[in-house]
Amino acid sequence: MRILQLSDFHLRGDGRRSYRVTDTRRCLDELVRHLEALTPAPDAMVLTGDLADSGDARAYELLREALLPLCRRIYALPGNHDRRDRMRSILGAWCAPDPGIPEFLCQAVEDMPVRLLLFDSMSPGSHSGHCPDAAARWLEAKLRERPGVPALVFMHHPPFKSGMGAMDEPFENVAALEKILGGAPWATLACGHMHRPIFTRYAGIPAMTSPAVAMQLELDLSPEGGDTFRMECSGYLLHHWDGAQLNSHVCQIPGTPGFDGPYPFVDKVNPTED
Ligand SMILES: [Fe+2]
Ligand SMILES: [Fe+2]
């Protein structure tokens, strides 16, 4: 079973460049050309947030039109640049929330050999990660329902430190999240937000972040690092379950990386909802 994790598209519907530099529509087109030629086709795609750059409706429409023909199963989480209301209305079934906590875009996919648990860590107007009590209870209950069954837990914000100081912001209620994941050693945690691949352990389980579809974070392991990007190769993660083992592969998207930069991130917080 092949699950593609695609993250951080930062699409704009107004034709302007993201952070005044990046043509994220072109990044999407390059991704689509790559995925159209991918064999075998993935069994599912999970989009781990920052789908839009500023939450505009046209960005979600562009994403839906581009990806819908490529995969029968697509699931989506919000990042700090997204708006839940527009994701709900435009992406529909991709982010059908669990009826137990309809205010978040948490969902559990239970009919595959690996469970997909999508945890919504976004709070409108905030750049950093959040673990509200209701969402924490949902995740804990889901993991307890099927102990020992392999589970990929997806969220936008990584709860672990990256070493790049500007991105290592406080994560609200992270102790609860750590306790919950620590009680599920059969789970693997896969996040977005960092715009580059990082592999570590968190709460005793394998944990990682995905490259971005658009704009890779400049690797700067200083207290101020992590606040600029560079036009390296775009990429994604391919999670492959062979029936006994889960391997996560870093994949690159053919394009025209110039490795130019670093460029600063500006206007990096999502808009609050109406
Ligand atoms: Fe992002
Ligand atoms: Fe983000």
In short:
With 274 residues, this protein is an alpha/beta fold.
Detailed description of the structure:
- The chain has 274 residues and is of the alpha/beta class.
- The protein has one domain: Metallo-dependent phosphatases (Purple Acid Phosphatase, chain A, domain 2, 4-Layer Sandwich).
- The protein has helices spanning 24-36, 57-67, 84-91, 133-145, 174-182, and strands at 2-6, 44-48, 74-77, 107-109, 115-118, 151-155, 187-191, 198-202, 205-209, 216-217, 228-230, 234-241, 246-253, 263-264.
- Helix 2 (57-67) packs parallel to helix 3 and helix 4 runs parallel beside helix 5.
- Bound molecules: fe (ii) ion (FE2) (2 copies).
- One fe (ii) ion (FE2) binds next to loops.
CATH superfamily: Metallo-dependent phosphatases
Read across the widest sheet, the strand sequence of neighbours is 4-5-6-7-9-8
**Terminal CA distance:** 39 Å
Question: Mean pLDDT score, rounded?
Answer: 95
Q: Nearest-angstrom radius of gyration? A: 17 Å
CATH class categorisation? Alpha Beta
What would you say the CATH architecture is? Answer: 4-Layer Sandwich
Shape assignment = globular
Could you tell me which ligands this complex binds, including any ions or cofactors?
A: fe (ii) ion
Order of helices and strands: EHEHEHEEHEHEEEEEEEE
Proportion of residues in helical segments: 10-25%
* Strand-pairing-aware structural class: alpha/beta
Strand content: 15-25%
User: How many beta strands in the DSSP annotation?
Assistant: 14
